[in-house]
Description:
2 domains; seven-stranded mixed beta sheet; 451 residues; Aspartate Aminotransferase, domain 1; four-stranded mixed beta sheet; PyrdxlP-dep_Trfase_major; alpha/beta; 4-aminobutyrate:2-oxoglutarate transaminase activity; Aspartate Aminotransferase, domain 2; identical protein binding; globular
Amino acid sequence: xxxxxxxxxxxxxxxxxxxxxxxxxxxxxxxxxxxxxxxxxxxxxxxxxxxxxxxxxxxxxxxxxxxxxxxxxxxxxxxxxxxxxxxxxxxxxxxxxxxxxxxxxxxxxxxxxxxxxxxxxxxxxxxxxxxxxxxxxxxxxxxxxxxxxxxxxxxxxxxxxxxxxxxxxxxxxxxxxxxxxxxxxxxxxxxxxxxxxxxxxxxxxxxxxxxxxxxxxxxxxxxxxxxxxxxxxxxxxxxxxxxxxxxxxxxxxxxxxxxxxxxxxxxxxxxxxxxxxxxxxxxxxxxxxxxxxxxxxxxxxxxxxxxxxxxxxxxxxxxxxxxxxxxxxxxxxxxxxxxxxxxxxxxxxxxxxxxxxxxxxxxxxxxxxxxxxxxxxxxxxxxxxxxxxxxxxxxxxxxxxxxxxxxxxxxxxxxxxxxxxxxxxxxxxxxxxxxxxxxxxxxxxxxxxxx
Length: 451
């Protein structure tokens, strides 16, 4: 049974012959700009495992880039989507009301850790759409034109979210970009200046937010500050809670809304249903949450959650869309929340995170190329360097490492502003045996690439 299997390569090379032929077909018909760095053509998926068209079995530590927290083809989601499909696929929510939208919205409003108690929810299709709608909602509520984002941020590939995203490799040749998006410094503690204490460095990062008011936009023109609780593409860098508190204070002083981009961090990835629960526990909850990825276990869906006051200040017609809150997606989303609770996946996230982090820390002690290990729950980044003294980024090593892991049945993905971080996004339904097998391949791959 695939769900319980361990990594197994049965072809002489990866990709095998069938996969190689299909990858060649892809080159001929799909734009190169979409990119694909993996020799894997999926035939079946179950739990944390993928079987390719040649019969090779891979342990998936990418999870659709954070989409599959409940795993591939969870049987309960399959049944929920099947049942909904027999009633109706779609009814545009601007036209007809359907219960799935309301039920999922009510469930998310009940658990989302935003600042206000009375909440409303809207649905869209992707993380970029959620972020863009969160910004529109903030602008509509505050009647202000500008936003502040951070270094290292990734928010999407629409025109606005490309502008919000820090790494401009995602936006080559796409300008001119929208006005009114200004950038402050996100705390990257591993790479803070050597002469600074951690406190001094955090003060500098907070000052960079206030500097936006002096150099770019007056505070009363800023609608929102958008921040990931733990940066994804930026390198799996957690936002220090003292920094979040300071940003929350700046927002409160100036009538600015704080948006938590929980596209990648949501739905159990960090050991909480939402990572901003850590913020709320410390008294600095966001005003708006944008979330997507694992919300519906692989069916396209995203959500924006905010207070009733904020949501109802948005002009009519500004938000909404054809597929937002699609009936099949909402059915999957409702079941995801049940699975998370009934299969205790928040607890499992912390268990997996503790075991994986301990193993990665041991590799850090063992190997000169492992510079830093960081994260929350089962969302962990390992940063690779040429050596610990200089901390010089080592993207060349990481590229080789990704391919070495794939050859032995483990799928991992890079991240980081220098392309030198490996992210851990394994499905939370992964078995202990699969985790141990993956960690062994990971460790062996570091040793092989060092040679």
